Amino acid sequence: MKWLAVFLLAAAGFAQSPEPTVTAGDAEKEQLDLSKAISEAGASGIDYIRALERHLAKYPDTKRRAEIEKALAKSALEANDRARVIKYGERVLKAEAASDDLQLMDAVIRGLLDNDDPDAARRALVYVKMYENALDAMRPRYAESHMSEGQWTAQVDKGKARAIVLEARATGVIGNQEEALRLARLSWDTSPNAESAREIGRWLLKLGRKPEAVDYYADAFVIEDGRATEEERARDRKRLGEIYVSLYGSEKGLGDAILAAYDRTSAAKTARLASIKAKDPNAGASQISEFTLPGADGGEPIAISSLKGKTVVMDFWATWCEPCKIQHPMIEKLEAKYADKGVVFLSVDSDNDHSVVAPFLKEMNWKGRIYFDAGISRLLNVSSIPTVIVLDPNGKISSRMIGFIPERFESMLTERIEETRAN
Fold first, then answer.
1. Within a domain: 245
2. Domain boundary among 96, 112, 140
3. N or C: fewer beta carbons within 10 Å in the chain?
4. Could you read off the pLDDT of 24-42 as tens digits, one per residue?
């Protein structure tokens, strides 16, 4: 409930002060009433919800209605209260046409599609388009996530596949089953996953194409998908068996179909990753040695694997970081000291906006190559700037320096480099 505490901070700001003399309807009294109601609710999520709903009933014309309804929608999400998610979530999404709250959109849409009601499905389609537009708007923002472009593309594609599969469900519910099947296949092609396979199977069954449906329910059952729950997999297995038995009289031969599904889904995921890696070598990278850092000047990238056997000093900085401006010349000094001694220094920019880097470097007149993050800081858990990480000759982290102590920086980093070289 941390987000709710932040939301209520303004309301609770004067709760400890003596109650002022106010008239009914006064904005200050409303704020005090809200603060008291939340305080009395304690840590209970449902009591928070009830307190906010009572407040809206008491102050139907409150200027804070939109703010409170958003808090109600978020609280309902935490409480898994689907009815309230729909009630308040729809109001929030209608008020925020350009919302980027993907979690709320997803929950509202799923709630509306829960009972296969055509009218609710038509409403869901409106939010599906918002969902898809929000995801498309996120595509250029990969640097903000401190992922490589390929890693970010994979994440956005997973979200897009979820949005498209919801569009498929809504489209089928309102009566267009062929289009629903097409959309479900598009979801699978965007990012292979259990829900997409299940949705393809669903509409194949509706269209009377049972043998094909078997394949997709088998795919849903076996595909590696971190979002698929054990309960969902159990249901997929049960449905798969039922369809198979209805076709062939028993489950004899089903094991072969499941093995074929494993091979098929593995190949689909491998092909998907390969297509992303063709554009970004860091897609799928999960080890330090698997990363390749692009040059900030557009020059040759550097593969971390090529530095095996050397001590590597990685300096993570950003143009907005004032200590970095002081620290960098010190690192250049040490780089000169360790030239031809098996120590490699990598200056890694962590700016979200890459366009600011070239003008900054020109102004500062920094020497040497500069590289972009490309997602390695996320793997290394770099959470603050500046951070200096020393890798040993095997590519393992030997030392991590967070922050900057000017009077001791050179000696501290020298000591850590020497320790790494000695081991």
1. no
2. 96
3. C
4. 456 788 888 788 877 877 6
| Secondary structure (DSSP) of 259-308 | HHHHHHHHHHHHHHHHHHHTT-TTTT--SGGG-EEPBTTS---EEGGGGT
- Domain holding 28, by residue range, is 1-96
pLDDT band at 284 (very low <50, low <70, confident <90, very high): confident
* Token representation of residue 363: 């102004």
Contact criterion met (CB below 8 Å) for 190 and 160:
yes
* CA separation for the pair 40, 48 (Å, rounded): 9
Q: One-letter amino acid identity for 342?
A: G
Query: 127 with 97: CB under 8 angstroms?
Result: no
Q: Which amino acid is at 176?
A: N
- DSSP sequence for 236-264: HHHHHHHHHHHHHSSSTTHHHHHHHHHHH
Its sign, for the CA torsion 370, 374, 377, 380, is negative
370 phi and psi angles, rounded to 5 deg: -120, 140
What CA–CA distance (Å, rounded) separates 339 from 178?
66
| Within-domain flag for 27 | yes
Domain count, the chain: 2
For the entire predicted model, the pTM comes to 0.79
For 218-227, write each residue's pLDDT tens digit. 999 999 998 9
Residue 56, in any domain of the structure: yes
Question: Across-strand partners of 317?
Answer: 349
34-84 confidence digits (pLDDT tens): 888 778 776 777 888 988 888 899 888 888 899 999 999 999 999 999 999
Q: What is the pLDDT of residue 143?
A: 67
- Residue 180: is it exposed, middle or buried by C-beta count within 10 angstroms (0-12/13-18/19+)? buried
Decide if 389 is inside a domain. yes
Of 96, 115, 147, which one is at a domain's C-terminal end?
A: 96
pLDDT at 39: 80
Give the CATH number of the domain where residue 413 resides.
3.40.30.10
Query: Residue 339: what residue type?
Result: A
